[in-house]
């Protein structure tokens, strides 16, 4: 970062296994710099896909918040926080909900990005706003899971539209 009073960006993401959301997070970090943080749950999800979707459905319906393994060091040093999640049942993954409820987002700007297999953003951005009501939440970017490797131009257009890169 060049200017002395400009705070660093933080790029936070959750990605189950395939790393679709991780790849978009990396496109963002290549574009804006800053630090990257992977959300990890204490307990792993099952290895069978159908079991993951069933468990996720139960967790979302009950409002369960999976405990997280790791914490961001000195969260207050960041003012722009990119938050990435896969679309799970039309919203963000429960681990990202835990994350949003674990930090003070007052005065922060959240920039959401979502990978999906057809539902695009769904209710994810609306739900992020509910879980971090004191943050300013900018326009979210949906990226199809199968297209993440080619998504850099879309990522950069979105960042330019938001005035986050030149
Ligand atoms: C539990 C679960 C629920 C999902 N629900 C949806 C959904 O409602 N709509 C959709 O388009 N994709 C859904 N998907 C597909 C993921 O959003 C997509 O594969 C995503 O890119 C995975 O990202 P990741 O590899 O970073 O975990 C779901 C995947 C899982 C595992």
Automatic annotation (TrEMBL):
GO molecular function: FMN binding
Gene3D superfamilies: 3.40.50.360
PROSITE patterns named in the record: FLAVODOXIN_LIKE
Highest taxon in the source lineage: Bacteria
Pfam families reported in the protein's UniProt record: Flavodoxin_4 (PF12682)
Residue ranges of every copy of the Flavodoxin-like domain listed in the record: 10-166
Keywords carried by this UniProt record: Signal
InterPro entries: Flavodoxin/NO_synth, Flavoprotein-like_sf
Keyword Signal: yes
Protein name: Flavodoxin
Organism whose genome encodes this protein: Dysgonomonas macrotermitis
